From TrEMBL:
Chain segments annotated as transmembrane: 111-131, 391-413
Entry protein name: DUF247 domain-containing protein
InterPro entries: DUF247_pln
One Pfam family of this chain: DUF247
Entry keywords, A to Z: Membrane, Transmembrane, Transmembrane helix
PANTHER family: BNAC04G53230D PROTEIN, PTHR31170:SF17
Length: 423
């Protein structure tokens, strides 16, 4: 008779035969709870589920009918049968599953059906969005682009880390179809760029996007991070303490704030000789926090190493500690603030810096911080700035001070001349 210990040994051996190892191609994650609890709405879809993580959310089931409508239209417009699309996804099933942390609860049939429905929905949404001014890809039945205009919520939902599909399957489905219009038909990368550049302003680098390599883009959140990869390799220097003056303190030290011509948010540069700090324009609106948080979460989960999204959040948090700091950057057209107030900007970056992972060792803006700290500590810069800001801040003040100096000089001359005559 088998003893209890023998059954336990056999059970453990059977468990060990099951492989639970994560794939090295995993790129779509559940947001860590320590981030989610800071602002759950920033990571949770409101209207549509994409992929397996939120597939069973009853609140999102209403959009399943819309997915079926888009699939019908997709098939009607293409020369490929539904069997062809299913066969393609079946061939890629293992690769697709490996992109997610877990998909074990999905049968093969349900997984393939979900990927097909969701992938077609994303493709059709991007296509209709880019063609929304024409009637070719829209119709009265489409409540996303006609009343009640659900596209406004969909545009946010497809940018959430937990709501992603691997980009390669979207490209391959597009490659099988002729739905993308007449020759030359736009690529999925072009459609995605068209969406981001119209909807998310300063988060989509526009003027040189054609030079950016999207060949290995993992999903739409990764698409956004690729826009802002550093254009130059930074010389890493050791920082004893990760701290920097606020914008107001830099202003008081004589730093001039200049709007950069670059659209890459990381291109913040300081000219030590001229005391010029250049920033690319940062547009802040209601959806900005969601975009930043999901880029931040992807960076932390995926272990990108460079950590430049987190480093940017940290730097802006150091700069913007009070409403006066925001006011200075708004006045210099560096921040385009569509939030309710300057205080909301301060709160935004304070909140983003909670659970933000950065390290003084290898911080992307190390050199910039060291230069700014050194400039601020120079006594002459402080005195010169104080003189300019307090006594020459308006034309009339400058005239008054100049007049007083001239009067003082004349008084001294008047006093000295009689003495010289006596001598």
């Amino acid at each position: 008779m088998e003893s209890g210990i023998d059954r336990l040994i056999q059970s453990v051996k059977e468990e060990l035969q099951i492989s639970y190892a994560f794939s090295d191609t995993c790129c779509i994650y559940k947001v860590p709870e320590r981030l989610r609890e800071l602002n759950e709405k920033a990571y949770t879809p409101r209207l549509v589920s994409i992929g397996p993580i939120h597939h069973c959310n009853d609140k999102l089931k209403a959009m399943e009918d819309h997915k079926r409508m888009y699939l019908q239209e997709f098939i009607a417009r293409t020369k490929v049968s539904v069997e062809g699309f299913i066969e393609l996804i079946k061939e890629k099933e293992t690769r697709l599953r490996n992109c997610y942390e877990e998909t074990n609860w999905f049968s093969s049939e349900n997984f393939i059906k979900m990927i097909l429905m969701d992938a077609v929905f994303v493709i059709m949404f991007l296509l209709k969005y880019n063609c929304r001014k024409s009637t070719e890809f829209t119709g009265s039945r489409d409540s996303i682009f006609y009343p009640p205009y659900k596209w406004f919520d969909v545009r946010v939902d497809i940018c959430l880390l937990e709501n992603q599909l691997p980009f390669f399957i979207l490209e391959e489905l597009c490659g099988l179809s002729t739905i993308l219009g007449n020759s030359p038909k736009p690529t999925l990368i072009e459609l995605t760029h068209g969406f981001f550049s119209n909807e998310w302003g300063s988060w989509a680098v526009g003027e040189y996007w054609g030079k950016i390599d999207f060949s290995e883009v993992k999903h739409l959140v990764d698409f956004l991070t690729i826009y802002h990869r550093p254009t130059e390799q930074q010389q890493h220097e050791e920082l004893e303490v990760l701290t920097a003056p606020s914008v107001k303190e830099l202003h008081q030290a004589g730093v001039k704030f200049v709007l950069s011509s670059s659209k890459n948010l990381l291109d913040i540069k300081f000219d030590r000789n001229k005391g010029r700090l250049e920033f690319p324009r940062l547009q802040l609106e209601d959806g900005t926090e969601i975009i930043i948080r999901n880029m931040q979460a992807f960076e932390q989960c995926h272990g990108l190493g460079s950590g430049y999204v987190g480093d940017y959040i940290c730097l802006m948090g150091l700069f913007l500690g009070a409403s006066k700091d925001v006011e200075i950057l708004v006045e210099n057209r560096i921040i385009d603030n569509w939030l309710l107030s300057k205080e909301e900007v301060v709160k935004l970056f304070h909140s983003l810096n909670i659970e933000n992972l950065v390290s003084p060792d290898g911080f992307f803006f190390e050199g910039l911080i060291k230069d700014l700290n050194a400039f601020r500590e120079r006594p002459w810069n402080k005195r010169k700035a104080n003189l300019k800001q307090n006594y020459f801040n308006t034309p009339w003040a400058a005239v008054s001070v100049s007049g007083a100096v001239i009067l003082l000089i004349l008084t001294i001359i008047q006093s000295v001349c009689p003495i010289l005559e006596v001598v």
